[in-house]
Amino acid sequence: MHISRIISLLVLTATLACSDQNSTQEDVMFKDPHSGAAPATARVTHLSWEAKVLFETQQIEATASWTIEKKADATEMYFDSRGLEIYSVSLDNGSSTNFVLDERDNPWMGDLLTIAIDPSTTRVNIHYITAPTAAAVQWLEARQTLDKKGPFMFTQSQAILARSWIPCQDSPGIRFTYDARVEVPKGMLALMSAENPRTVSADGIYTFRQPHPIPAYLMALSVGYMDFKAIDKRSGVYAESGLLEKSRLEFQELPAMIDAAEKLYGPYAWGRYDVLVLPPSFPFGGMENPMLTFATPTILAGDRSLTSLIAHELAHSWSGNLVTNADWNDFWLNEGFTVYFERRIMEAIQGPDYAEMLASLGFQDMEGTIQTFGASSAATQLKLNLAESDPDDGMNDIAYEKGYSLLRLIENEVGRDRMDAFLRAYFKKFAFRSMTTERFIEYLKKRLLDEATYQKLNIDSWIYAPGLPENVIRPVPTRFLAVDKALKTWVEDGKLENRIYKKWSSHEWLHFIRQLPDKLTATQMTSLDHQFGFTNSGNSEILAAWFIHAIRNDYIAAYPRIHTFLESVGRRKFIVPIYQALLDNPNTREMARKIYREYRPNYHSVATQTLDTMIIL
């Protein structure tokens, strides 16, 4: 049965009581177009989750027991579900109740689970099993891991994929605490976005506790043959044994990053901060799961040159995890703030010149995205309208870089000291609560900008209009000026002296590659590769940028490395542009289809959802 419902959501988002926090409660009015939950009537507050991970069938069999708050006269409660087989539903002490699972019109929305409740109900217990094709869950065979010791699995719940492995109220504006008991095959380690074990359980049973209220998209689980190494007393790294020491060395600056973040915007609220380095099929650079960032191995360059990604995920512990966009139309409130915070952390660790290089590369990404969509496209607004779209469609460079550019503009106007005081107060006041764009504007006007300054900066245009306003501040990294000069020399002479580039960072090399002419001769491509070794680089950012030139200019010497890269890497940021370049070149179009047919099983659904629309097999 198909049911289309438009539900006005009055969400009781609150600063819920944590063990060491005083709580206040404030209602927030908003509509979440991507959830069927009606929390004004009944909402979840705590999850007790018991699960068994079944590698042989690639399923999770579980019971989700939800503690709820509701109106006295509520007779139904709504949950989001996607592809779940619901065995039964019971209330409180185990009495069974009626439920209906309705398929919704859009596939990304999944099903609406309606459960009958009564006036005395305080707990809803949902017994279910996931589908082997659950969109959030990636199941890997032993051959797809580094150590080849056994299978591996991980989840990726953002934006609305949590519903494919847990029936939940899958809106970022609805928070809950959780505890869990998870059974896995003996010898494997299980980890969640919670307080985690550091050693393997003898019986394969693990318990978890997340005492802080989180939205469903921050639910996470990973199971595999992993080990742990501490970096300091409150941070460490999990990885397959073959990557563990390399990962620990790569993340040595993590304690300094945490210290820098706390000095900027207040205490880290989550206790520990650990990083899990996943197999390379992970579709994102990182995912800010509370207490345990999931990270791609593509950031392990060997020289700590790509660890700004960890600074980004750490910054999410404040902007995103602590103060969260109320729905995915306000995604920029998570990501724009986080990019701003990330670059402030990197400035504290590496200096202003380094942070400005990051800002410039991000600006280049944003310009490319605007060019792709068109400057008049609504997709280039900060405040989005994704009601009829999968929210993953709104996750591009605009939220990140245009959001950062707006905050940088405000800082430039009011001064850094006032900006920092404002953000510290913002994170403190709205901790563990939801934020809409309109509510942020209200707070901004109340605490930082008077009406005249708000109008002077044209902030409404920044937020609600497409493209880039004229008062955008373009980063000017002084270190890139030398790169531009060197590139001019290379174009004219075909060579560069070693003394010019021997101390370049990976960011300078990336800028150099990005600024190369689109059309290069075979001689030029060969000369570049022989002199600088781009095809054999160990840096994924450099490789991905170089591959675009190699494909565009039919540099076949790089094709074997492109093939192995697409075999082993699933990070959407890299593989989508590479496949697009292969498709755009008639000489490599069939090559793209052949590689994708072979390696599609290596990619997470977040990546294949995009690639399937591009590549017709």
What does this structure look like?
The protein is α+β, with helices and mostly antiparallel strands. Among the domains are: 1-141 and 151-185, tricorn interacting facor f3 domain (Immunoglobulin-like, Sandwich); 323-464, Neutral Protease, domain 2; 516-614, Peptidase M1, leukotriene A4 hydrolase/aminopeptidase C-terminal domain (Serine Threonine Protein Phosphatase 5, Tetratricopeptide repeat, Alpha Horseshoe). The chain has 19 helices and 23 strands. It has a 7-stranded mixed sheet, with no helix packed on it. A hairpin with a 7-residue loop joins strand 8 (99-103) and strand 9. Helix 2 (254-265) packs across helix 4 (331-350) and helix 6 (397-414) packs across helix 7 (416-429). It starts with 9 loop residues before the first strand and ends with a helix. Mean pLDDT is 92; it is low at 1-29.
